[in-house]
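F.,

This is the one I mentioned.
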């Protein structure tokens, strides 16, 4: 029996959510960080969306955020010309890395010893986090502001995207290996280590390239401009979201649209699958994050499958373990002057 997708709504941000990232699976589950133009990146429990805290210290919009694999450190990129590294357990700021322009993207190496940054000054920077006083290594070559930069190939190489170009760099020699130009602005980039797949979006196109050679693998066209796409860990399907407020699910092999979901009240800026593939998260212009089940009706996190009573004639439908409230209601987090990340908790709503 068909069941209706019931997303969890994570409120708390007061401006558009522009980036999100999951940690790996830890002994305490997995975690979700979100970047927002309100300047207060937030940390949540990944499977439920429960609010843990906000990292307070940026003086401008936060454009990028990430967690290291074991969720002990967080990094953020902001319009205040800084990237910051945080203790993700206590919420304490560990270091501020000054830049000469807006910072858009941050990424840890697998061992968490180095941080890669990129932004409007067109330079990639590599910081040794064990030597915060040392000058970063710099890689030049981009001709417009860098939107995304990611470690790949076990940190031996770097992938980066500016307005219409994706480049592959060798970490050891700090030189460009290859570049690919597009006729439209690249809106997002995701790297899948298993199989070395690169997921790109530009215009209405969702494209897959080899992360090793940048050669195209396949591409799909969506019915609206797409801002972000994410490939399911087992590569059976993908999700994508964009300007028409919808989340689309496509079969990876055939490109067939399987489903589409409406829930956000503004364009979707970022989507990502959780590390276990059980859900995907989306962040929107409406200031919320939403969590969507991969298998609708499965008991997981706050979703509880409630079977209908025999002979009652009711349809089976997923339930969530908390009181329902109005979806469009956005709640503010702690006051501007709070010096603790632990304060009034934004609610997760059905």
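My design for it:
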């Amino acid at each position: 029996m068909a069941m209706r997708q019931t997303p969890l709504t994570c409120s708390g941000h007061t401006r558009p959510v522009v980036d999100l990232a999951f940690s790996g699976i830890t002994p305490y589950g997995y975690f979700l960080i979100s970047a927002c133009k309100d300047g207060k990146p937030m940390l949540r429990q990944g499977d439920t969306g429960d609010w843990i805290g906000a990292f307070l210290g940026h003086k401008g919009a936060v454009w990028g955020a990430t967690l290291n694999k074991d969720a002990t450190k967080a990094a953020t990129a902001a319009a205040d010309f800084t990237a910051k590294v945080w203790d993700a357990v206590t919420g304490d700021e560990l270091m501020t890395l000054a830049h000469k322009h807006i910072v858009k993207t941050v990424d840890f190496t697998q061992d968490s010893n180095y941080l890669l940054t990129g932004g409007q000054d067109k330079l990639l920077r590599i910081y040794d986090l064990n030597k915060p006083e040392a000058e970063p290594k710099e890689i030049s070559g981009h001709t417009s502001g860098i939107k995304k930069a990611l470690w790949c190939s076990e940190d031996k190489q770097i992938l980066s995207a500016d307005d219409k170009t994706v480049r592959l760099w060798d970490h050891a020699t700090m030189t460009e290996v290859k570049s690919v130009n597009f006729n439209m602005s690249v809106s997002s980039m995701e790297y899948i280590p298993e199989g070395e797949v690169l997921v790109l979006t530009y215009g209405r196109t969702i494209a897959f390239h080899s992360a090793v050679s940048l050669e195209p693998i396949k591409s799909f066209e969506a019915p609206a401009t797409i801002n972000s796409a994410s490939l399911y860990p087992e590569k059976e399907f993908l999700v994508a979201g964009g300007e028409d407020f919808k989340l689309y699910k496509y079969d990876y092999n055939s490109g067939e649209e399987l489903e589409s979901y409406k829930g956000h009240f503004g364009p979707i800026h970022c989507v990502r699958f959780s590390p276990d593939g059980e859900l995907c998260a989306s962040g929107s212009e409406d200031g919320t994050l939403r969590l969507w089940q991969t298998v609708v009706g499965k008991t997981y996190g706050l979703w509880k499958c409630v079977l209908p009573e025999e002979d009652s004639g009711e349809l089976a439908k997923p339930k969530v373990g908390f009181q329902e409230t109005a979806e469009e209601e956005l709640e503010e987090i702690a006051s501007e002057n709070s010096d603790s990340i632990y304060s009034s908790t934004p609610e997760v709503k059905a």
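The longest strand covers residues 175-181.

Talk soon.
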